[in-house]
Amino acid sequence: MKHLPVILLCLIVCSSCFAQSSLVDPCIPDNEKITYASNFEGNRSILITEETNIRTESGREIYEITSKSEFEDKQMKFLKSTMALVYVWSVRKFPDASFESKYDFSVKKDGETKISDFSTIRYVFRGFPFEKTKSLKLDIFGRQGDQAYSVTVKVLKKEKVKTEIGIIECYKLELGMNGFWAGFFPKMHLWYSVSPSHYLVKFEGSNMVQQGKRVIELKSYTRSP
Questions:
Q1: All domains of the chain, ordered by start, with CATH?
Q2: Which burial class, exposed, middle or buried, applies to 99 when counting CB atoms under 10 A from its CB (0-12, 13-18, 19+)?
Q3: Is 111 exposed, middle or buried (0-12, 13-18, 19+ CB in 10 A)?
């Protein structure tokens, strides 16, 4: 198999600076393990396994999240206090090649983060201040940093979601672009557990690169005592 390190080209929202000063530490437990089933357009479900560990790097506490599946492996690092993304490594696996990308980010302002892959949004919003506010208006900045794109994420309601491990009470979030861009990017819906540490229970939305609906559903959840 050929191994081709490349910088994956994404949509403008995928390599961006995400102003999210209102996000908080979701208090993810060390050694948390979650399994999801991911399905795109009704095709065969893909199993995703994730593990979160708490590390200290350069005097800062971080969440190191490792995600593995049949088609992609990913490692992400977030500042524990603000869920600001500081590092992403991923490798996409194909029959004859693998495509690798790595991004290191410096947080220049408190509460400001940069993301290289829109799929990291579902991790970032574990830090949504569910108990304090119903919506946040955020700015996404383009690759050159010369234009901002407005996004709103809001709590629609509390909703009970049926999963393989039982019925879980969740906050249902809706994320959508504002203004002109709203017509180009469909809204996403994310369900997070009401109980700490607000882990993702379900996701519905476009994968932002291919048109079509992607659904991610919880299969298992374990945490250290």
A1: 16-222 (2.50.20)
A2: middle
A3: middle
* Cβ neighbourhood burial of 5 (10 Å; 0-12, 13-18, 19+): exposed
**Digit-coded pLDDT (tens) for 21-62:** 478 999 999 999 999 999 988 788 999 999 999 999 999 999
Give the 3-state secondary structure of residue 151: strand
Helix ranges (DSSP H) in the chain: 121-124
What pLDDT is attached to residue 224? 80
What is the value of pTM for the model shown?
0.83
pLDDT at 148: 64
Sign for the CA dihedral angle at 216, 96, 4, 2 comes to positive
3-class DSSP state of 180: helix
Q: CA 59, 75, 134 angle in degrees (round to 5)?
A: 80
- Residue 205's pLDDT is what? 87
Cα–Cα dist 223/218, whole Å: 14
| 116 φ/ψ sector (left φ>0, alpha ψ -120 to 50, else beta) | alpha
81-114 pLDDT per residue, tens? 999 888 999 999 999 999 998 888 765 555 444 4
Distances in whole angstroms, Cα of residue 56 to Cα of each of 59, 60, 112: 6, 5, 19
Distance separating alpha carbons of residues 45 and 189, to the nearest angstrom: 19
Asked if residues 193 and 158 have their Cβ atoms less than 8 Å apart, the reply is no
The C-alpha atoms of residue 185 and residue 190 are separated, in whole angstroms, by 15
